[in-house]
Amino acid sequence: MFQSVSTNRKPILLLSLLSIATALPLLLSPALGHAEDNVLNVYSYRQAFLIEPLLKAYEVKTGTKVQAVFANKGLLQRLQAEGQNSPADVVLTADVNQIAEFQDENLLQSITSPTLMTNIPPQYRDPGNMWTGLTMRARAIYAHKERVKPGEVTTYEDLAKPHMKGRVCTRSGKHPYNVSLLASMIAAKGEAAAQAWAEGVKSNLARRPQGNDRAQVKAIKEGECDVSLGNSYYFGKMLTNDKKPEEKEWAASVNIIFPNQDDRGTHVNVSAAAITKSAPHYDEAVKFLEFLSSDEAQAMYAAADFEYPLKDGVAVDPLVASWGTFKADDRNLSDIVAQHGNASKMMDTVGFDH
Amino acid sequence: MTRTLQHPEPPLYTANEPKGFKTLKFDVWAFGTVVIAALIAMPIFWVVGLALNSSGDIWAHLVDTVLARLALTTVLLMAGVGFGTFVLGTGTAWLVTMCRFPGKRIFEWAMLIPMAVPAYVIAYVYTDLLEYSGPVQGLIRETFGFTNGSQYWFFEIRSLGGAITMMTLVLYPYVYLLARAAFLEQSICVLEASRTLGKGPWESFFKVALPLARPSIAVGVSLVMMETLNDFGTVDFFAVATFTAGIFDVWLNMNSPSGAAQLACMMLLFVIVLIALERYGRRKQKFHNTTTHNRALPGFKLSAPWAALAFLACAVPVALGFGVPAWVLGSYALNFYEETLAADFWTFTFNSLLLAGLAAAITIVLGVFLAYSLRLGQVRWINGVTRFAALGYAVPGAVLAIGILMYLGWLDNTIDGWARGHIGISTGLIFSGTVIAVTFGYVVRFLSLSFGSVESGLAKITANMDGAARTLGAGPMSTLKRIHLPMLKGSIMTAALLVFVDCMKELPMTVVLRPFNFETLATFVHQYASDELLPEAALAALAIVAAGIIPVVLLSITIAHARAGHTQHVDAAPQHIPTPVQEVSP
């Protein structure tokens, strides 16, 4: 028995040797990558399918090779651990709180670029130029076309009022989009009012918070609820989803409402970018950020993602334009970032998700 | 076969060596174990180190608000999935191994397939089907003329119960795999003895086969529970607040990695206690065959109604855990294959296979080394060291990834600092952000899979084998090569499969540790799945499942053939000659 089986171990051994041999060139490749000069390295919290077209466009335009790592968490810790030897030049984040964390950990350096300062309005940039916003999205309210009467919901505050009982859907209160909205509420009206608001919305929920922003619109279409919170770009993505035509129907059943037009304005957030403190290619990084704020790249963002370009004069996508213009909360985003931790805890305190 | 009680066996390694001599000799086993264990445990130490930093008032906040709920939800989830996988895994393993019914030969390997389906994928698929706006409830409303949800009852898929069901469906194969291997390794003589002594098939199962398989089943269930504990994708999708969800909330929303590390350490402690309790529960038992009389399992022939029931018991988990998700993914893929193929699909597949294969090979070698070193039992404290090193599985992947980042970053920068100071050149980052880092992460995380599997396999080999080999003059290495490895073939293949499939699905570590411009199938699927756009990546998700099926089939064939006495022409003769069970144990 022993002899007959022991010969069969050879394939396993062979297989391991083979895989190690194949792996060797891969293992060595990063070390070789360092030697190149015409390179830009990006750590991105924004998804690859959104960012890659922009990276490609930059490569074509400049001949610089752009390398990227995409992740939804942990890039800050990676940059921190790699220290002064980190290859990363540029950090891209999906919202302003994420970029502020890099700033808090002292991982960024200030961006010296007159171009960037002209292209991006000051309320969407760090006052000390440690980071800059690139695109903007609104935290909108989606309301069923018939079941919600005109004027019934015009503010975030309305969502907490008694007439909305059992009619509100939203994703998890601990999702950064909702935490950020609550943070803006704290910044605008103080902790007590913000907490009362969160409690009011919770008591009006039609179902336990779940799913993403699209799933809430789907629930409105199906009659589970009448209104939901959702980022503005999802409206465009759903309306144009040829691959999944039912999403068009979801979106067709709702109106998009930009809340608080008569007071502080609609809560907005930005996707952001910064240059790392250890950036091996600082000049290249500045050029890349300038490119991202240029007409060309801003228009690409606008078309691909239905976000609002931050650069003045760059047209929004025609579909987005059809929703009308709106007044955005123009409080400096760093005030909202400052309340992020508080807001997150407040969601726990009111037990928003339970 | 013996179930020896209260007879501690003498350490094997010292059997024929004079006392006092061994202390002078360089012991490659002890040394190797310490080096490997230290290397593997390093990232966990860094996580512990991170936890020692202050996290401000986060604990007060957590205790006041969500901690009790997180703990309760987590315990319920683990208990539910643990129980579900135990019943499904052990039950089907017994049916398939010991009974004869239609389809048994197919179920032998088909039972394993659901493990290739990532939990977040199956969660996505069933939510799409079963939620209020899904086709199933839509059909119910249409059929009965309901207009809203308050007019009828339907279970909420995004719930604790939903999460338990989803995870049970894809995790039961872990228990099945180990339970089946254990049942196969049992000598039929023991069961026949039990039957001769007047026990029925049910009693023989509960009183003899199940207790004998306990070490393996315990390993299987504890793997499942650790996997459950660490899951983030599914619970996040279902909005079920578990401890792991809490860890990520503290880390990302409250900006406190050290608070997250503290929670992770608490969870680790919980796992250590659980494992210790299980081991304590069977501390004085040893389970192994002493008989060499094995032959093909005859199988209880089931009567028609029982056979139908057995068929259903096996068919339903496979249909729900694999059939339905594969069908839904397939229909998505038909719509969206262009997106996947336009991206570098074949490169992603190659990357996934390469990393998973590499990690499987390394963890097997290390797992065998550690488990065998433990068996040699030379140094008492090695036991603790080894078990600590195998704890990576009990830490959420993303938290472990931070430990690896910090450890490798420290290592790279230390080497660089030294090189700058002494030879005036910068070595830069040698390991960070390379394939080595990802592979290292896999090995740290999945070592316990191979270690646990090999260890439980070794436990079933009687020490008399070692004794005989050593008496005949073979050294430990030669005994391992000539006696144990051939007997462990099933366990080793099991371990290889577990690690391979888990690496194919692995996400949080791959994402954070990978080199520039490097995608695997799992990372590609994730960038869409994280935005609830799974259909766009359905082809890649199917590829992950398919890549898991191939080793599953290979393994299943190997396990069946690795069983002593399996080969038809050999066991033909002894089958009719009743042989006495020999008791050779001390």
UniProtKB/TrEMBL annotation, chain A:
Name the UniProt record assigns to this protein: Iron ABC transporter substrate-binding protein
Sites where the protein binds Fe cation: 233-234
Region forming the signal peptide: 1-35
Keyword Signal: yes
Entry keywords, A to Z: Iron, Metal-binding, Signal
Gene3D superfamilies recorded: Periplasmic binding protein-like II
A Pfam family assignment: SBP_bac_6
GO terms of molecular function: metal ion binding
Family: Belongs to the bacterial solute-binding protein 1 family.
Automatic annotation (TrEMBL), chain B:
Residue ranges of domain ABC transmembrane type-1 in the record: 71-278, 349-555
Assigned keywords, A-Z: Cell membrane, Membrane, Transmembrane, Transmembrane helix, Transport
One Pfam family in the UniProt entry: BPD_transp_1
Main location group: membrane
Membrane-spanning segments: 28-52, 72-97, 109-127, 160-179, 235-254, 260-277, 306-328, 348-372, 384-410, 422-444, 483-501, 537-560
GO CC annotation: plasma membrane
Record InterPro entries: MetI-like, MetI-like_sf
Subcellular location: Cell membrane
Topology with respect to the bilayer: Multi-pass membrane protein
CDD domains: TM_PBP2
Domain of life: Bacteria
Biological-process GO terms, alphabetical: transmembrane transport
Name of protein: Iron ABC transporter permease
Lineage: Bacteria, Pseudomonadati, Pseudomonadota, Alphaproteobacteria, Rhodospirillales
